[in-house]
Each structure stands twice: as C-alpha cells, then as structure tokens.
C-alpha cells in the first residue's frame, strides 16, 4: 500500500467520526429555504421580482421573519431574511 494512503487512513481512524463538507449542506439548505420563501412571497404579493415589492411589504416580510425566527428558529426564517436583504441590496433602502 502507498505510504501516503496508509498514513491518511491511520489519521482518519485516530480522529474518529467526522462530518466533512457540512458547509455544502448548509448552502443547499439555504438555497432550498430561500426558494421556498420566494415562492410564498411572490405568490402572496402577486409579483415576479423582488424589486416589485414595496417598502411596506418588505417590512411585513421582515416582521414575519422575526416571528418565524422566534417560533421555529433560524433555518425557516433565513429564506425570508434573504428576501429582505436582497430587496435592500437592489433598492439601497435598508429595513433591517
């Protein structure tokens, strides 16, 4: 066996169980929850682009994101906060 492979295998055994590339899963989760939130928001407000939302609508979304964060934690609210940040970056008008 190649000594480098043998060394790598012995190091893995010494470390024990370890999850690699968890950040990839977090990226996937964030993308999924943001797409889910986007669908809800766009359908509710009858828009096709985030820039079509008004400041009042964004404030409603931010308030609901806060409630979701308190009730369910940051994974569910993340998508709605991403929409608010996206709108802020497009309009240069800041709500959060």
Write the layout of secondary structure elements.
Layout: H1 3-15, H2 22-45, H3 55-72, H4 74-91
Helix pairs in contact: 2-4, 3-4
Question: How would you describe this structure to a colleague?
Answer:
It is a single chain. The protein is elongated and about 65 Å long. It has helices at residues 3-15, 22-45, 55-72, 74-91. The protein is an all-alpha fold and 96 residues long. Helix 2 (22-45) crosses helix 4 (74-91) and helix 3 packs antiparallel against helix 4. The protein has one domain.
| Cα-based radius of gyration, to the nearest Å | 20 Å
Count of discrete domains: 1
Structural class: mainly alpha
Would you report the number of β strands? 0
Shape: elongated
Q: How far apart, in Å, are the first and last alpha carbons?
A: 57 Å
List the total number of helices: 4
**Largest sheet geometry:** none
Mean pLDDT: 92
* Oligomerization status of the protein chains: single chain
**Ranges with pLDDT <50 over ≥5 residues?**
none
Spell out the helices and strands N to C. Answer: HHHH
- Helicity level, as a percent range? over 70%
Strand content: under 5%
Characteristics:
0% strand, 96 residues, mainly alpha
Task: Report a brief summary of the structure.
The chain has 96 residues and is an all-alpha fold. 76% of the residues lie in helices and 0% in strands.
């Amino acid at each position: 066996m190649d000594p480098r492979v043998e060394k790598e295998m012995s190091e893995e055994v010494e470390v024990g169980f370890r999850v690699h590339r968890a950040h990839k899963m977090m990226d996937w989760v964030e993308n999924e929850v943001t797409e889910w939130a986007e669908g809800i928001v766009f359908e509710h407000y009858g828009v096709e682009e985030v820039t079509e939302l008004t400041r009042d609508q964004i404030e409603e979304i931010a308030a609901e994101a806060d409630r979701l964060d308190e009730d369910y934690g940051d994974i569910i609210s993340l998508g709605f906060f991403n929409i608010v940040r996206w709108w802020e970056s497009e309009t240069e008008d800041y709500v959060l």
